[in-house]
Design brief:
Shikimate_DH-bd_N, NADP binding, alpha/beta, EC 1.1.1.25, about 35% helix, shikimate 3-dehydrogenase (NADP+) activity, six-stranded parallel beta sheet, Rossmann fold, globular, six-stranded mixed beta sheet, binds 2'-monophosphoadenosine-5'-diphosphate, oxidoreductase, single chain
Length: about 270
């Protein structure tokens, strides 16, 4: 019996249980994936109980991707580099933190536009500088010929992230909005636009280049205000659900050693 779960707040609308139940079904093993909506003060008690109860592992989402770290025994290289964790596995009584956000985003993008990184320098804009933004930025940082521009409400956080990148730059949200035609790939990683704040939108897309890919990592709702506006400009729209599916597949692989099939992953995008 595999015991899995998700911690965060709020998480009532999470799709992760549905995805992992499908992965478990395909693998043909019994298991549960539970939601744990915790307050900050409950993180310590939760991790202690997880160890005692012998959970297989759990995911971590907003707002605990950084806050969970002091409660873990070890981090893998990527999670350490990002200082953010979205996947935890219990191994020999120790809680080990991983981060599959960046890999998940990269795999979603590769499936969506396999040749995106083949030619010339790509200008990327990441909106936000939280845990998810970090994971994505560091994964994209491995690709040659990319310039990664970060725009965040709190500019100090944007500078902290840009310093970790080979070719990272910081702009204010207003500057990024004004220079939008420069970007080939725009990635919205803030929580503005997520249920219940569906009217939130950090950057307007009036100046977007029609050949650009515009993506939002929010998947509830699928069509955020940001993506609706993007589609009015005829750009390529990459949905948040795609990243969720591929990061979930990578987490599942870490926990169980089994990768869900591409056929199943494709079918879950609907
Ligand atoms: P996660 O770790 O899941 O990315 P997080 O660390 O809380 O979550 O990051 C949330 C991101 O959304 C941050 O970039 C945050 O901006 P700040 O660094 O300025 O807090 C951004 N964010 C959330 N609500 C926002 C809003 N209403 N307007 C602009 N940015 C917002």
């Amino acid at each position: 019996m595999y015991r899995l779960g998700l911690i965060g707040n709020p998480i009532k609308h999470s799709k992760s249980p549905e995805l992992h139940e499908q992965f478990l079904k395909e693998l043909g093993v019994k298991g549960v994936y539970k939601l744990y909506e915790l307050t900050h003060d409950e993180l310590g008690a939760f991790t202690e109980r997880a160890k005692q109860d012998g959970i297989l592992g759990f995911n971590v989402t907003v707002p605990y991707k950084e806050a969970i770290i002091p409660h873990l025994d070890r981090l893998d290289f990527f999670a350490k580099e990002m200082n953010a964790v979205n996947t935890v596995k219990l191994m020999n009584g120790e809680l080990v933190g991983y981060n599959t956000d960046g890999i998940g985003y990269m795999e979603a993008l590769r499936q969506f536009k396999p040749d995106f990184f083949d030619h010339t320098n790509k200008e990327i804009l990441i909106i936000g500088a939280g845990g998810a933004a970090k994971g994505i930025a560091l994964a994209l940082n491995e690709i040659e010929n990319t310039t990664i521009n970060i725009a965040n409400r709190t500019e100090d956080r944007a500078f902290e992230l840009a310093r970790k990148l080979k070719n990272g730059h910081v702009y204010s949200l207003a500057e990024a909005e004004r220079h939008l035609e420069a970007y080939d790939l725009i990635i919205q990683t803030t929580t503005a636009g997520m249920q219940p704040n569906i009217d939130g939108q950090v950057i307007r897309l009036d100046r977007v280049k029609p050949t650009a890919i515009v993506s939002d990592i929010i998947y509830q709702p699928k069509w955020t205000k940001f993506l609706k506006q993007a589609s009015e400009h005829g750009v390529h729209v990459l949905f948040g659900i795609d990243m969720l599916i591929y990061q979930a597949a990578k987490s599942f692989e870490i926990w169980t050693g089994h990768r869900p099939t591409e056929k199943l992953l494709e079918s879950l995008k609907e």
